[in-house]
Write a structure and sequence with these properties.
about 25% strand, three-stranded mixed beta sheet, globular, 6 helices, alpha/beta, L-arginine/glycine Amidinotransferase, Chain A
Length: about 250
């Protein structure tokens, strides 16, 4: 069984960190409704959702993916690049402790889970404004006994690696070539986002289903033409906080 750890939307979300977006008003009620629908979709796909209470003093805490990497053998607690997000780690460590042995990234390493893309035993880590080489070197030391290969990927123009690329099928990635070099992923079939939909590369794959946002219809059509099964889910309010579909859950096998 797959487990998804999620966390309710913080009432302080309007004070979220922003790097590449202009601040807009966030409808807290609508954001909660969208997040509840997100959890419902995960349940409908057979995922057991462990939903944590909101953190009133941590605006970005709904984006639980940034705080940990969960693998079959262990979990790594990250050290988020934004100082305001570092306190999120403690509660996530408590939530993960029953499931995995925990390791942690330490200073001067900075790492957001949104910069981590795992494909099999290869882990691609984005070098971004939130994640640095020190963290990657620490990850290499932690993961070496388990046979993982790490590859550092330069990210330009967006917040995280998974803003620019996600896995949508076993050997297929959805990618924005303006933000990450497609040559780094030449081993995979690539579906390019439509040029008018720069933020369209983030999709959440659950088995043979791809959860996707309806606000990217041209890219969505490309995914359908590739034979992928889409479930459309609006996350527009959380997108204003520079979040995306993958950000809102930590998904792993029990």
């Amino acid at each position: 069984m797959q487990i998804a750890i999620t966390r309710k939307v913080s009432p302080a979300i309007s004070q979220c960190e922003l790097t590449h977006l202009v601040r807009q008003p966030i409808d807290f009620v609508k954001a909660n409704e969208q997040h509840a629908r997100y959890e419902d979709v995960l349940r409908s796909l057979g995922v057991r959702v462990v939903s944590m209470l909101a953190e009133p003093d941590l605006p970005d805490s709904v984006f639980v993916e940034d705080v940990a990497l969960v693998l079959d053998e262990l979990a790594i607690l990250t050290r988020p690049g934004a100082d305001s997000r570092k306190p999120e780690v403690e509660s996530i460590s408590i939530a993960l402790k029953p499931y995995r042995e925990l390791f942690e990234i330490k200073a001067p390493g900075n790492l957001d889970g949104g910069d981590i893309l795992q494909i099999g035993k290869t882990i691609y880590v984005g070098i971004s404004s939130r994640s640095n080489l020190s963290a990657i070197h620490q990850m290499q030391d932690i993961l070496a006994p388990f046979g993982y290969e790490l590859k550092a990927i330069q990210v330009e123009g967006c917040l995280h690696l998974k803003s620019a690329i996600t896995l949508v099928a076993d050997q297929t990635v959805l990618i924005n070539p303006a933000w990450v070099d497609p040559a780094e992923f030449s081993a995979f079939q690539q579906i390019l986002v439509h040029p008018d939909e720069g933020y369209a590369a983030n999709a959440l794959r659950i088995d043979q289903t791809v959860i996707y946002q309806p606000c990217f219809p041209r890219t969505g059509q490309r995914l359908k033409e590739a034979g992928l099964n889409l479930v459309l889910l609006d996350a527009s309010e959380l997108s204003k906080a520079e979040g995306a579909l993958t950000c809102c859950s930590l998904i792993f096998d029990q």
